[in-house]
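User: Run a structure prediction on this.
Assistant: Running it now.
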Amino acid sequence: MKYLAWALLACTVASPVVAQTAPVSSIRVSGDSQVTVKPDRVQIDIGVTTHGEASSEAASQNARQVDAVIAAVKKSAGPTAVLKTVNYSLQPSYKYQNGHEPTLTGYNVSNVVQVQLDDLTKTSSVIDAAAQAGANNVRGISYTLRDQDAAHADALRKAVARARADAEVLAGALNLRVLRVLSVEETGQRFVPMMRSMAAAPAAAAAEVATPVESGTLEISASVVLTVEVGPAAR
């Protein structure tokens, strides 16, 4: 019995004491920011669509026109331009009449080449050169940024600063002060927008007038949620 009592006492002494953690007073705020930047990269989708009675005829004609367009674009854009095919299709074409079976009228071939330029001043000349060489549609003009991370980082810094300022205001209104940052989290999807301008086949190619284009600006957004610990204001 004495041995058992000593063992129980030893266990009681060895058991750690669980400390009671005082609750942390905190304020949770969100911060948003938007910065405006000028794009420094443009992507132009230039297409050639041809029609022929036979698929091989339409495809051969399309290939000749696309080769001419690519050569003209490279000459106008210079060696730094990046070209790549983004769409190619060959489809039968039908004539539809009520009460009759569709009649095959030939084949349509479409080839779209994307031109990427870092010199936005060449946008008009590239579009016009492509049209004069045989391009018969421009699917769209997209403006974006070469260094997307820098613009996003600027917006993020401003969002954090706004959230911290709001936290200071709230704490002061409650006669408290911010002691430390507990957590910060970026919210929303991170992306840099691409401004897209749709265009049809450039009519200016037929006339001796450059196709007018405007790059505009891009809006870069960032959002954060900030949680700070607060305590009594210093007296």
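The CA atoms of residues 4 and 10 lie 10 Å apart.
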